[in-house]
Every structure is written in structure tokens, then in C-alpha cells.
């Protein structure tokens, strides 16, 4: 299959499975909040953030290994692939032992950390162990999945993962509805990851029968992979920056406000994270495609694809942001109740964070493909700015202060520094070309938003009375904006024109077959 065909296959399979997962997750969230309470769900979110902190020890090893696999996969060098995956296992198992030890030590402090909660500390510890076990299984038994992703076969692992965890959510709902047993609910959180690992490893063995699962990493192999280790050390700093930007929000809200607010924010984050994941699944296969593209080292083709990806990301981010903004409050009201609706300022901040996350991805994909991680000061600066802004603003403005901190730090480092670094060290061309293209795309989305705003004011759409009416409302508004924005991009954006032409030709070839 061609890179485009594999990318599309990865995308549609990932989307189908994740939509099913989203439906079950939304239904289960309502049951969990009703049966387990806001405080317990807030503690679940906090524990997951703590595990994200412990997982900093992973230090970006998986991303570095993915980068190092592109060339041997392109050359079909199975010996090198085995060596890299074996080296990954060598590192991951040691990290798993460190995470396990650190988690056990942390558990001793749980009575002090959670002393002001109404939930029994023993239950919190059991829940933490269940969540921890899922993480540790990944370190010891699931690291081979990076080969699937680099080889553009991520759809296989995605289908197994989503199926396993849809099963978990269904069983947990049944447990709460018919047994109302919190310990059994946590036990399912503990047990299902074992099913996932078994199915995944079986699929990997079938797909790559030549892959050595018990590969022994010798001293000579470690010496040969010094460059990979260098990339890992550089990525460690980027990992820290990513965690502080995305993983400390719940911890700060828990510490400076209360656990229930973590649950309220968590409802919004659940929707946003699922949409981000859904879009991410659509584009997941493109990382390997970009890696192969960089391996070919055709700068003209690379920059052409870059602007196609940028135009598409702007298009999807713009359309999704409009639908999120105008449908979110009604969704929360119909889904969980009016008491869970938060201010429009928080919604606006979350939508803006979503938009930034989408339009930054082309830069991140090419930066990763080039292995450009030497700018270790950047994630440290992002972390410092994020924490500083978040703490200052949360003390002054409340919950929204956390998101203001995230937005400001991402603008400075992610939207300004990273493109400069990619164009200078990767493409080797003048970064002005990026700023001109990026600015034009901002103007295109602003123009589309302005036209849409006046149409929306004329329509005067009211609140939705049920989910069906909400779906029609969002679809109607989304369609109007999409038509406006598509018309602007197809007329003015060269990258979007090239993308539409490429996809049209691909579909024509498919229909001819």
C-alpha cells in the first residue's frame, strides 16, 4: 500500500473504534458520577495526573525509538529493527521498575495527601494500584506496539485497545447499576489491561513472526545506539514540558480549589480529550508517513506536504471549534445536568487550547521526523511559564487561571519557537515563509468566523431540548461554517488546493479499481 492509503486505513479504523468508545464513555460517565460521586471521580482524575508525573521517567523513549525505526523499516532491515525494539524493552523494563518503586513510596503519603477527602484511603490506594498496574503492563509487555505505529499498522493495536476498554466500561456500568460495588468497579480497572496485553502480543507475533520477543541487549548494542540514547536524553526535557502543560491542571485545581472541581473540569476535559484523540487517530498514521518522507530527503515535496497538512489542520480545527463552542453547554446540560455547566470563559479557553493543539501538529510531526530535540531549554521554559502563569492566575481568577497559563506558555514556545527551529534546523529555509503562510491561514479562519457570526445572529438559534435537537443544531451550524470556510480555503490557500487535488486523484484511482 502507498503511504496515503495506509494513512487513510489507519484513520478510518481508528475513527470507527474511537466513536464507539466515545459513546460508551459518555454514557458511563453519567453513571459513574451518579453512583460514585463528584469527589471520587475527581480523585480518579487526580490519581491519573499523579501517574502522568511518575511516567515522566519514560522520558520520551517511545518517541525517540519511533524516530529511529523509520529508516530500518524503509530499508526492511529486520536485524536493526530487532535491535532497536530489544533496546527499547531493555530501557522500558528498567523504567517500569523505577515507576513501581516510586509509586510504592508515594502510597505511604496518601493518608496525608487525601486527608481532607470523604473517600476511604484504602479504596484510594486500591484504585491507584489498579491504575498503576495498567501502566506497568505497558512498560513490560506492550513496548512492541511502537513498531506497529512506525510501520503504519497502528490500526491493529488501536482496534485491540479500544475493544478491550469498551468492554471495561460496559462491565463497570453493569457493576454499578446492578451491584453498586465500588471494589468490583476498581477490580475491573485492574483486570481488563491483562486482556489487552494478551491480545496485543498475540497480534504482534502474527504480524511480525521474525520479531525476537526475548532479545538480549548486549553492551555492544548499547554502544551502537549511543545516538538513540542522546535523542532520549533530549526528549526527556520535552516530556517534562508536555507534562507540565497538560498534566498539572488537575493537580493544581485539587490542591488550590477542591476535588469536586476536578470532576467538573474533568467533564469538559473528557469531551475535549476525546475529540482531540479522535482527530489524533485520524492523523496518527501521518507521523510514519512524514518519517518516510523525511527519509527520502526531498525538500520540495516535504514543504508541499507540510502546507497541505497545515491547511487541513486549520480547516478541521476551525470547523470543530465552532461546533464545540456553540454546542458544548447544551451537551453538558443534557448529558449531566445544568449544575455541571461552567462559565463561557472556561469554555472559550478550552476551545482555544483545542485549536492551538490542532494547528501545531504539522510542525510537531516534521520536528519529530527530523529528530530535532536539541532545544532542551524550550520545554523547560514552557514548564516554568506554565506553572508561573497558572498559579498566579488561578489565585486571582479561579479555575480559568490554569487554562490561561497553558495558553500563554503554548503561544510563546509552541506557536513561536518551534516553527522557527523546524524551518532553520530541519527544512533549512527562511522561517518568514512559515509566518506568512500561518498568518494567512489565521486570517482565513477569522474571515470565515466573521461571516458565520453575522449569519448566526440572523438565525437566532435557541437552546436544545434533547440530544437529537442538539445534534441537528450542531450539524446545521457546522455545515454553514464548513461551507464558508471551505470556499475561502479552496479559493485562497494553495496548500488546501493541493490537498483536495491529491485526495480527489486518490479516490478516482480507488473507484477505477
In short:
Keywords: Cell membrane, Membrane, Transmembrane, Transmembrane helix. The protein has 513 residues and is mostly helical.
Question: How would you portray this structure in words?
Answer:
The protein has 513 residues and is mainly alpha-helical. It has helices at residues 3-36, 38-54, 61-74, 78-107, 110-113, 121-141, 145-150, 154-179, 182-207, 219-224, 226-247, 249-256, 259-296, 299-335, 344-359, 361-370, 377-397, 400-427, 432-459, 467-492, 494-512. The protein is globular, with a radius of gyration of 23 Å. The mean pLDDT is 84. This is O-antigen/teichoic acid export membrane protein. It is found in: Cell membrane.
Measured on Cα atoms, how large is the radius of gyration?
Answer: 23 Å
How much β-strand is present in the residues? under 5%
Intertermini distance: 14 Å
Helix-strand category: mainly alpha
Order of helices and strands: HHHHHHHHHHHHHHHHHHHHH
Annotation, overall tally of beta strands: 0
Largest sheet: none
Overall geometry comes to globular
Report the total helices.
Answer: 21
Poorly predicted ranges? none
For this entry, give a set of tags.
513 residues, single chain, mainly alpha, globular
Q: Which SSEs are present, and which pair or pack?
A:
Elements: H1 3-36, H2 38-54, H3 61-74, H4 78-107, H5 110-113, H6 121-141, H7 145-150, H8 154-179, H9 182-207, H10 219-224, H11 226-247, H12 249-256, H13 259-296, H14 299-335, H15 344-359, H16 361-370, H17 377-397, H18 400-427, H19 432-459, H20 467-492, H21 494-512
Subcellular location: Cell membrane
Transmembrane segments: 12-28, 40-70, 91-113, 119-146, 183-200, 310-328, 340-359, 371-394, 400-422, 434-456, 468-492
Membrane topology: Multi-pass membrane protein
